[in-house]
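User: Modeling request: complex.
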Amino acid sequence: MKQMVHRSEPALALAHPQPSLEGERAAARTIISVADLSIVFDTPQGQVIAVDRVTFSVAHGEFVCIVGPSGCGKSTVLNTIAGLETPYSGAVTVDGRPMQRPRPDVGMVFQQPHLFPWKSVRKNIAHGPRMLGKSRSEARAIADGLIEMIGLNRFADAYPHTLSGGMQQRVAIARALANQPRVLLMDEPFGALDAQTRSVMQDSLLELRERIDATVVFVTHDIDEAILLADRVLIMSAGPGRILRDLGVDLPRPRSNAIMLDPAYLALKKDCLDLIRSEGRRAFDQSSAG
Amino acid sequence: MKRINILVGALSIPLFVVAWEVIARSGIVNAVLFPPPSVVAVALVEWVRSGQFFLDLGASLYRVVTGFVVGAALGIALGVLTGQFALVSSLLSPLFHILRPIPPIAFVPIVILWFGLSETGKLFLVVWGVFFTVWLSTHIGVQKVDRGLIRAAQMLGTPRRQMLQEIVLLGALPYIVVGLRTAISISFYTLVAAELAGAFAGIVYRIEIAQQNLQTGQVMGGLAALGLMSFVADRLFAAVAERTVWWR
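Assistant: Request completed. Predicted assembly structure:
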């Protein structure tokens, strides 16, 4: 989707993408476009380039995982798509409109559930629809539908602190889906869970995905998780954060954790590991040479 | 072991009262200055029977409750503003931090000049004492609201007003409640200062009058009534607070 790329000034360039014939055709299926995104943080040690000229796009309905070591800027990229990270240089658009602040058509699930502790499960999920002006009964109906979908019927009136970590994260996913976002962003949502709960959550996310019509961008540092879930894996390197490889995952769906023993899966995983290992060695050589 | 603790605990106050009675009647101390509990009890009964007690109680409660409500409302409102908006904080926080450490009792002389012995002056003292504690705890509470909750609420399309009313205020509530509870005892000690400065009715006013007449039984009865009032207020608030912060 290089046609969405346009040169921009380093600071705060927020021009709309130029509509061209090719661009319009691409826009029909491209929902997220990240073009030449750079983010520089001011730290006491000086300026640090967190994200360095990252360019990619995501088609409608795609499930894309961004993998990379901690500190590679993958969460920063995600926060920019969410409208939480501003200012930035480059162009980040969802549905053709630049992201300047959070928007209800872009939902987010964080590593921590961040549920409102004073609201029941049902009211947590109903919060978004209420804020968008839906009536109490409409919002409740939406919430009840989602509670059914995540299988927490018995806990609809429970408060978050009475739920396990996995259940809390399910509620957080349902809450993000309640506004029917076109894009669902997930920032290591299973990173704080134990291995067992984690694989259960991965399987239920795969199931859920078959039933919702959202584009998903999922950040993780776990290669297995990325290949299991994604249609495409973007591998990032650290210092500064760049995209190393854009890898298609052509494994059949519906999938589950069982696929992790499939030869095609293992071949993909080997590719990823080789790439990450050689990148790691290169970074190490560079730092010891310098 | 546990049973004996409960037993001793139940005997604590009766033992104290009996010891007090025995010492006061033994002649070791001057019974006029240190009357036995039986004399205090008689003074209390007479106070209640004359009807004066309820007038005094009413006057004191009115000052404490009104002062507390007004001071707390102001404290919460301004605490949310300074906690949430850096510009408001830059304007007001330095001023509040200068005024806050001055003990409210020190304002009695100037309050008498401003308001005389009127009710307004007494309310002013209680409001003044309550306000700073509640303001500071609200300010800190608002600043300590989990950033993650705010981001989550932003992502769900929460408008500014709801963000303040729902997420920020409720997120800060555990801190605010602690501030309010501290402010209850502050409201009682500013009440003491206000009534000692001159009043026409009130529990502390009655203590002062009794002292001038050397009615030590009445003085101690007044102290007991004041202690009981403060104790009941604190317990009532604790019960309410438990329901207010129901998610804990």
